[in-house]
User: What shape does this take?
Amino acid sequence: MSEADLSVDVAIVGGGIMGSALAFWITRLDPRCALVVIERDPSYATASSALSAAGIRQQYTTEINVRISQASIEFLRDAGRHLDRSAASLGLQERGYLYLASAAGAERLDACWRRQRALGVEVARLDRADLAARFPWLATDDLALGTLGLRGEGWFDGPGLLAAFASQARAQGVRYLRGEAVGFTGSGPQLDGVRLADGRVIMSAAIVNAAGPWARAVARWAGIELPVSARRRTVYVIECPARLTELPLLIDPSGFWIRPEGERYLAGYPPTPDDDGAPLEPDHSGFESVLWPALATRIPAFESARLRGAWAGYYEMNDFDQNGLLGTLPDQPRLWFINGFSGHGLQQAPIVARGLAERILFGRYRTLDLSALDVTRWLDDRPLRELNVI
Ligand SMILES: Cc1cc2nc3c(=O)[nH]c(=O)nc-3n(C[C@H](O)[C@H](O)[C@H](O)COP(=O)(O)OP(=O)(O)OC[C@H]3O[C@@H](n4cnc5c(N)ncnc54)[C@H](O)[C@@H]3O)c2cc1C
Assistant: This one.
């Protein structure tokens, strides 16, 4: 059969972490399923999955996000059972997230901590004296509270996880097609294929939008204005002669985050303005004008920091409620969404992809019930309010 009239059970548009993890799970759960992943850039030069900070945390405020994180960390710790990579080779380091609050934010952070404890998250509540004793390099004068994840939080090798899912999916028979998807054939309940820029048509019973920050463009081919935009985030690579003991991933009340990466540090902050689709160039000037002053205020040792590099990637931002959009819409039963994870997609991918695979193959969630992330909540105007979005 030539590629011009390839016919499969499932066609996935986009081979980033969502598309590749989904391809892995579908063919793991049903080895007979014929599946293609359509990816326009196998080098993943602009894919979010290759450009993220690859952090995983438990400190969420919605039950669904906590349950996903609990399952995701188990998946990563046990990666060798599923993938041809162990947790150690995926660089998993459980060194915690430290949220900090000034007096103005203390009540809110305290409420988050109570909620997390009730959901079984192992998280410590630290007052100013605790913070000063535990992190002697931290400027604590204006701080009222901190919360520190004790287990299940840290970071890992994001591109490594993507490569592991993709290679395992291939080993299970998934075919990666290099090409740019440009439209669908059929519509509504008769949607039946994906058209590629080179003229090929891939006929498929189920089609998945896994196009990350470009998901809205793909949804438009079906007449859907999905609320997902591409919000540029710059990651700064910083060197500092001072060695900080026990630096977790720190989130400052001013908005910046920082974590160690080998001998160096990675850091970033939410930019303003935050336009859709800004060119994928790092904002070098933001280091001097925003990040460095805030960093040196919180960690005085960073007065002697130097910027050594920077890169930029897109958050695939769900402008509706900043959480993943999963499943199908009522009049489009053959088009599936796995979009809009808004800065926490890499850590959620192993579990949300497993769930969507179950929905596609068996019509229901079999392991963790992910219906709280159902894309229909957007149509019904029922936002899922997560207070901890970074
Ligand atoms: C700076 C930064 C820091 C982040 N930090 C974290 C973090 O600490 N923890 C965390 O969990 N998440 C983090 N994220 C978010 C995370 O990276 C994303 O949620 C996740 O990678 C999204 O994966 P994806 O597969 O949906 O998108 P992508 O990885 O972007 O993959 C989409 C793929 O679709 C392809 N594609 C698009 N359109 C087409 C088309 N028409 N035809 C063919 N192919 C197409 C693209 O080429 C791309 O490869 C961060 C993101 C950024 C940018």
Notes: Residues 13-19, 38-41, 44, 47-49, 51-55, 180-181, 210-214, 218, 233, 235, 313-316, 341, 343-347 surround flavin-adenine dinucleotide (CB under 6 Å). The longest strand covers residues 306-318. The chain has a mean pLDDT of 96.
